[in-house]
Queue: 2 jobs
Job 1
Amino acid sequence: MNFSVDERYNAVVITLKGNVMGGPDGAKLHETLHELKEQGKTNVVVDLSKVKFMNSSGLGMLISGLTTMRNAGGDLRLANVADRIQSLLVITKLITVFKHYDSVEEAVKSYEEA
């Protein structure tokens, strides 16, 4: 997995690519989220449109990121959740924990409305 970070309006968009399975990549994402938090950037959108596969460690990364941002007074929202990942979120009941949107634009806009 790799990822890119892009700032749009009042949110930071992190686009995950490839297989999301935790490990060293998860640690790198964790560091990035903590750096954003220290900069006061706590409105994060994770774009999952380029994710091929996600396992439980990948889900754990998202939960950790969500906790980090919420503890800092922000949020972590999901965008472009593919069917196979959405079913994983439904099975684990995490679909009720994460706010999720059909597009990055909708997710970014949701911060403006809050």
Note: DSSP finds four helices and five strands in the chain.
Job 2
Amino acid sequence: MAPSLLEPPQPALRKIVHVDMDAFYASVEQRDAPELRGRPVVVAWKGKRSVVCAASYEARQFGVRSAMPAVTAERLCPHAIFVPPDFTRYKAVSRAVREIFQRHTDLIEPLSLDEAYLDVTINKTGLPTATKVAIAIRQQIRDELHLSASAGVAPNKFLAKIASDWRKPNGLFVIQPGDLATFLPPLPVGRIPGVGKVTEARMKQLGIHTVGDLQTFDLASLELHFGRYGSRLYSLARGIDHSPVTPDRPTKSISAEDTFETDIPLSQTDDLIRRLAEKVWNASRRETRIARTVVLKLKTREFNIHTRSHTPPRSPASLEELTQIALTLRDSVDLGPDRLFRLIGVGLSNFRNIEPPSVSLEARDRIE
């Protein structure tokens, strides 16, 4: 039977590869320092306020994880080797990985220094399948950079990201369109992007533990319980994700923050704010767009987060102007003179394209 002319056309299947470098920062450290290979490496500054940036798989066996307090990591793995992060080096390696990606496709959407989506529906090297592209990329990373990467291959971004994590480290997993009926239902709902601990707890109250459980709820019920995100859940539970790979996504914000060794009052933060503002200003100079909003972030010793923001009539035109706005935002915080803070951050957001200067009719007549 021919499809009705009123039916919307079905989007063509994409071939998406998600590449995720294995324990990236720690693996770079082990690659460059042979004495670290095979040993539990924790990339972090030592100290009670530091957090783990990355952990080698040897350290992960002891329960060490990224974003964990460094003191917790040290307690879990007392013989771990702590290495301070070197982001300049990690960024250089990330650029080298990106160059390998570009041999195969220009449709690359980086998520961070160590992972990216690639649309290889049409690839530059003429390889017949996305799986062969993923194999080639992983081999080139191994041969040229002496690092390992895991990859997931699937018809959309949602499934490709799940697949890349399926056989880590140093693994490759492929999800074919025909696999969805058997692959998705047993998955824990926590594997769905956006389902954090709070959402997962709400789901469990509704009897939703797996994607199969989620599939039993209709669209209206999911929107009732989860608002607009309910529509997204309905689609993902069925393996539907039409979002394209978007190369070079525009910057939404730039920020820098610092956690103090000891808690301090706001009156002692002038130099810290100036230093953070300088970092943010220098980073913003590499953008082709301008930011309209200045943001100040504060975290109290009780871990309460307070933010202040200001959007001036025009974008800050200098480091001095940015710094002054940040200091003014700091002065607007009134939590009492005895309140102590453990973290301060300065940021720029609300990026816009630079508007061309307007030309008056009289001036335009002279130009013409």
Note: The chain has four domains: 16-21+88-179, 24-85, 184-236, 253-352.
